[in-house]
Amino acid sequence: MTILLVEDELPTARFLQRLLREVRPEAQVLAHCETVADTVQWLQENPAPDLLLMDIRLADGHSFEVFRQVAVPCPVIFTTAYDEHALEAFQTNSIAYLLKPVTADDLRRGLEKYDALRTYYLATAPAGTTALPPPDFSDLLRTMQQLSKTPAYKTSWLIPHKTKLVPVAAPDVAHFVIRHGLVCLTTLGGQEYSLDMTLDELESQVNPQQFFRANRQVLFARASVLELEPYYNGRMVVHLKPVAREEVIVPKPRVTELRKWMS
Questions:
Q1: Distance between CA 38 and CA 164 in Å, rounded?
Q2: 234, 162: one domain
Q3: Are residues 257 and 232 in the same domain?
Q4: What sections of 91-239 are H helices per DSSP?
Q5: CATH code at 111?
Q6: Beta strand pairing status for 94-99 and 156-161?
Q7: 213 Cβ partners below 8 Å, 6+ apart?
Q8: Chain mean position to CA 111
Q9: 220-245 confidence digits (pLDDT tens)
Q10: Domain final residue, candidates 147, 176, 197
């Protein structure tokens, strides 16, 4: 088995190679790419590997950009610290979606899925065929979308912070605020973390019964509301805990909705 490893963090890349040696000693890592651009160039200049082991968030963008720029003829096992990209991943060539930190058992199951697909394909393909084609998950995706009548809201975030990944559960979130162009998550305990997401994306992920979009800059949780204060021109000031650095003002058209949401 030949593998192209796509991972922008060198320690993680080394860790994954150690796991590969443990669970699949005969596997050969042909190359290690750190960016979208490097991956596209490698795939354009080399024969396709049997499998891609690919992180999603790379130094120069999401790895999904690779699939928009070059044909990827092999299956992919994604490794990521974020769980919100699963649907998009399975719209590409994904056969497994492993959340970091990846364990040996996680990787082993992903490779076993590759083995099972390859065995099935070779047993049913015309004589002389050896290459494993990209899996087609379109029917599965349509079924998932039809069955997903109830929105699945985020229950937690795994946030890169300094050299670590910090889990933050949705019930522990006080508010999200845009500050200096970045979204800042503040917990009920007062910890602050930057998120590589937009406020619109977050609003679509959280339970609207628990979170309210005050304005373009603020999305807050019910648990963080201390009190409401009428403001001039029919607007409303929301006092939060922990206190937001910015004054949280709900515009007049949304005040009625806020009152209903609070009650």
A1: 26
A2: yes
A3: yes
A4: 104-124, 138-147, 199-205
A5: 3.40.50.2300
A6: unpaired
A7: 199, 203, 219
A8: 21
A9: 999 999 999 999 899 999 999 999 88
A10: 147
Give how far Cα 44 sits from Cα of 2, 110, 211, Å: 16, 26, 45
**CA 171 to chain CA mean position, Å:** 19
Q: What is the pLDDT of residue 136?
A: 46
What residue numbers bound the domain in which 241 lies?
A: 156-262
Residue 120 three-state SS: helix
Ranges under pLDDT 70 in the chain = 83-87, 89-91, 120-152
61-62 and 248-250: which strand pairing?
unpaired
Report the SS3 class of residue 64: helix
Q: Which of 95, 125, 147 is the last residue of a domain?
A: 147
Residues in the chain, overall count: 263
Closest CA to 262 of 232, 204, 222: 222
Q: For residue 189, what are its two tokens? A: 């305990």
Residue 143 and residue 160 share a domain:
no
pTM: 0.50
Structure tokens at 121: 């394909």
In the numeric block, which tokens belong to residue 198?
A: 């937009």
Tokens, residue 241: 């805990």
CA distance 166 to 121: 41
pLDDT, tens digit (0-9, with 9 covering 90-100), for 172-217: 999 999 998 899 999 999 999 999 889 998 998 898 989 999 999 9
In whole angstroms, give the CA distance from residue 63 to residue 85: 11
Whether a cis peptide bond, with omega within 30° of 0, leads into 242 is yes
